[in-house]
Amino acid sequence: MDISAVLTVEEIAALSDPNRTCEDATLGMKQVGQPSIDQRWKYDTGTFEESIRLKNTIDMFEEQVQSSPSWKCLSIILNCEYQLFVANQDTPLRHNPFLSHWVEAVQRLARESTQNGRLAVDPTNYYGSLNSVDVGITRLELIKSLLQSHNPTQFAQLSPKQLHKNFVQLKQTTSLDVRRFIQMLEEEGVYERGSSVDEDSKLSHKQSTETMDKVADKPKLSNKQQWNQEMMLRLEQEPEVAVPELTHLPIELLYLDFLTTLLQDKTLQRLSIEPAPVIHDYIQHALRIVEQMGQPPGPSSVEPSSAWNGQDTEIVGHGRDAQARAVKLLLLFIRNLIRKALLPPESIYYEIQEICVRYVWIREVREFRKFIEEGSPLSEQLHG
Fold first, then answer.
1. 235 and 271 Cβ atoms separated by less than 8 Å
2. What is the pLDDT of residue 128?
3. pLDDT tens-digit profile of 214-257?
4. Domain contains 1
5. Region Disordered: what ranges (predicted)?
6. 22 pLDDT exceeds 80?
7. Last residue of a domain, which of 167, 190, 215?
8. What is the pTM of this model?
9. Do residues 58 and 171 both lie within one domain?
10. 3 falls within a domain
11. DSSP 282-318
12. Does an H or E element contain 78, and which?
């Protein structure tokens, strides 16, 4: 899975006009992003994969803003944030795979705006130049409003310049208590428990720098680079231990990306490890986890097989929302394996059939079935 993919040049161009409403920019991007029918199985993306591209595009232009802020950068960032929220609004925030992205952005941007002050452009120069603080404040207030109201339609008919005017020039702000979102992330296993947030902290531009520093002391995610290095070392030195760990990893982007990288770099073959059985066993394990998510919490909430570092795979989250989130991640992983020809499709044929039948109530599963039926290497087998 290429979790570094960004929007195409044409799609970015459609989002770069600061006078174009968010809704109109969205329609324009969809028009330029439509692949031809005969190429759709290679290039078409589901909702989750498109969301990944939106997020990565935000990250890319966020870096650019630091050195050369512009109305174009502001427009692209705001439109991507708007579309990211719209694309995932049917998923409850607790199970939304992009909640951590918004929480971390709010904390960081709020701290930066407080430290630097509201250095807005001259109110009389509406078409003047921007600075990075202006961009950050506008993006911050948009995200806060979306998280607080969960209603993106209020911004559909507004342009990036109108949003900038409301949030920077008119200084319209939304008060947001970030603690409840951090608690959601902790309960879902995305953040580690134990990190605290200042009890009186509310995300507002009126906060002092000291308070914002405390809010910014958020839970830390696992160190991806360190984990990758340790797993690679075990694969080389103790493959008999490492391979079972690989096949029982949690359904998270960190681990799915690692598995994909192993296939792309042919690392397993280099270590004389057959890739197909490893991926097959992992998908089987993932499907067992998804099945258990549909059961009430209880003793069955821990997968008995060991995961990384000898720890049991805990089932975090139960019910259809948790199942949908896990299935979306798994489909993104499988779709990428097929599209990049990283694995013989027949080796996971029955697993794909199980997903398409058992979880047909998930929209992304129906999209995946369409992806399969429109020319992928598995289309003949699935029709047969």
1. yes
2. 53
3. 333 333 444 667 888 899 999 999 999 999 999 999 998 888 88
4. no
5. 193-213
6. yes
7. 215
8. 0.58
9. yes
10. no
11. HHHHHHHHHHHHTSPSSGGGEEEEE-GGG-EEE----
12. helix 71-87
